[in-house]
Amino acid sequence: MTDLISIAEARRRVLEAVTRLGDEDVPLDVALGRALAEDVASAIDVPPFDSSGMDGFALVAGPEAELELIGEARAGHPASEAVRPGAAVRISTGAALPEGADAVVPVERTDDAAGPSGAPARVRVPATEAGANIRRAGEDIRAGDVVLHPGTVLGPAELGVAASVGRASLRCALRPRVAVLATGDELTPPGEPLAAGAIYGSNGFALSAQVERAGAELARRGTVPDTPEGTRDAIREALEAADVVIVSGGVSVGPHDHVKDALRDLGVEEHFWGVRLRPGKPTWFGTRDGTLAFGLPGNPVSAMVTFQLFARPALAALQGAAPDAPRASATLAHPVARNERREEAVRVRLRHTDEGLVAETTGEQGSHMLTSMLGADALALIAPGDGELAAGERVEVELL
Q: Does residue 219 carry a pLDDT above 70?
């Protein structure tokens, strides 16, 4: 592992190997988190008609007056009679503006007068200007407007907008199918007794959660024994079942690290092994017939960090979404030691201040200390160098 490459170069090689997956129609009620694969244009104006912005009275604008009440307009129930000068219609917020009306007076600015039966028959209104408290047709969206674009990851607002223009389903990118394998004879499923020298396996659960958060579909999750045959069999099955295979552990240079050999034996072409990164140096990446394979380190933090930096962008690109996670600039709250040769991904919490973002480390940064990921908002990307970065210096952070 003599020719380590930079984070940027590793990401470039990963994305260069990605071929976008196909598309499918997805009902709106299960489209949250999916990547849009089409332009969504509105066939209607939104709102589709002039409507009231207030509970009140629809009328013809003019001076202060006492007006005859001739009907009511409610949302979904338009008035049956047109408004004429000297008359008004009681109206609810969102109701269609009656024909002839050109303004709405809020109810709190009026006085009702009871008729013979006790029901309000007349209303006194102040002077009113045309257009007051009216929401115009097409004020939000005009018919023909493109409201959503391909690559958009659908959140609550996007789904609401799609529904507002009448779309019951959307054309979305297929979700990548991902197999997550964790290697190690010592790994024990949570809930079972621990044998001597064993640990509970966390990588499979953490990486699977990252897969799903990235909008992909978890095709399988498994534990792989530290044998050449067991490793090769598990990876063979994963390659046949998934678009992306992620293996944690077994990619270094120990006598029981069998992942790289198994991948090569199965025809996976290596694109890189070794990144100038701490934590995450022994990261491996390759492809076979369009299937992506990642060999991530076995240390829990290294696995999560390298997933964020390399596998997550690939899953986004497979869906036609923007691969780059949001980045920002932050000020260090305290000094951070630098590594002489490797870039560092320091887990930080971000605090908003009047002077901008402040980054505080999550504590001890050992690659085996999974608790350093708790509460982390971002990875502070620290360039190699001597000494330390002083408190107050600015660093680039990648948001998680």
A: yes
Task: Name the nearest CA neighbour of 168 among 29, 24, 23.
Answer: 29
Determine the Cα–Cα distance for residues 380 and 357; give it in Å rounded to an integer. 12
Domain that holds residue 190: 7-22+174-318
Q: Residue 197, SS3?
A: coil
Query: Is residue 120 included in any domain, yes or no?
Result: yes
For the full predicted model, state whether its pTM sits above 0.85: yes
Q: What is the longest distance spanned by two Cα atoms in the chain?
A: 98
Sign of CA dihedral 124, 126, 129, 132: negative
Is the separation of the CB atoms in 284 and 311 below 8 Å?
no
Residues 134-169: tens digit of each pLDDT? 999 999 999 999 999 999 999 999 999 999 999 999
Q: How far is CA 343 from the centre of its chain?
A: 26
Domain annotation covers residue 61: yes
Cis peptide before 126 (omega within 30 of 0): no
- 125 close to 113: Cβ distance less than 8 angstroms: no
> How wide is the angle at C-alpha 273 spanned by C-alphas 272 and 278, nearest 5°?
115
For residues 373, 375, 378 and 382, what is the CA-based torsion angle, rounded to 10 degrees?
-60
CB atoms within 10 A of CB 5: 18
Average pLDDT in the chain? 94
Q: Is 114 a residue whose pLDDT tops 90?
A: no
Residue whose structure tokens are 């930096």? 309
Q: Which residue has the tokens 């002039």?
A: 50
What DSSP assignment string belongs to 116-185? TTSSEEEEEE--B-TTTTEEPTTSSB-TT-EEE-TTPBP-HHHHHHHHHTT-SEEEEEPPPEEEEEEE-T
Residue 2 inside a domain? The answer is: no
Q: How confident is the model at residue 21 (pLDDT cuts 50, 70, 90)?
A: very high
* Phi then psi dihedrals of residue 213, to 5 deg: -65, -25
Count the domains in the chain: 4
Residues 227, 302, single domain; the answer is yes
pLDDT level of residue 369 (50, 70, 90 thresholds): confident
DSSP classification of residue 108: G
Alpha-carbon span 79 to 49, nearest angstrom: 13
Q: Decide if 251 contacts 278 (C-beta within 8 A).
A: no
**Cα separation, 356 vs 265, whole angstroms:** 51
Query: Token pair of 377, please?
Result: 């908002």
